[in-house]
């Protein structure tokens, strides 16, 4: 041994990463940079197909997709369409990037279904009954945020005080929503006062709508608040937080709010989505303009 040399421990072997299958690579890259809720829902849809077919993505053929779609007979038409659209998007992406040898979903045509949006729009009286029936201030504030700001349930639960900027009349909320897009949403003065009265934690990262423990309100808890409020008001068991968002759009347009303003407030990607909430008022219609 040369003077000064010491016994050295052998260098640790590099930990080898587990090999990634073609399916996993395709799914991961397809989901990259999508919003958290979108990633979770899309991945669940894809895993559902793979479990049903018992094949890899590259082995999936059109009859597999058709059988999987038919097996969801108990699900709503909207759910079946959403799940199929997610899978078709993945298969198209995989074929386009060369990860998959073919696009099994390209030949699957989805017939346009009947638009049932009108069935999920509450009247103003129903919304008032739903909100006024809630006596607990924190839960009542949640219902008002969902309706008066038109937020998605995930957006309401994620709202922090740092996101609100006070104005002479109320405030403006910077809402980070679907598609990883940020949009300004007005907080009416009355609602802002209601939220300020609930504030206990003065920190900027404190939730605007806290849970019972002062921490962030979970989406499941928020969902239960809406369901219970709807039940007290004698409304359909189908009512969800998103119905309040629908009501916001419909009622604002009924009160002559410009469609582009409603579109920007709700964060719709297209004005066409917003105008779906426009409906014929009693006594109105193009026929009256013909004579």
TrEMBL record:
InterPro entries: CB, DNA_brk_join_enz, Integrase-like_cat_sf, Integrase_catalytic, Integrase_recombinase_N, Integrase_SAM-like_N, Tyrosine_recombinase_XerCD. Residues 21-95 form the Core-binding (CB) domain. Keywords: DNA integration, DNA recombination, DNA-binding. GO terms for molecular function: DNA binding. Residues 117-290 form the Tyr recombinase domain. GO terms for biological process: DNA integration; DNA recombination. It comes from the Bacteria. Gene3D superfamilies: 1.10.150.130, Intergrase catalytic core. Belongs to the 'phage' integrase family. This is Phage DNA recombinase.
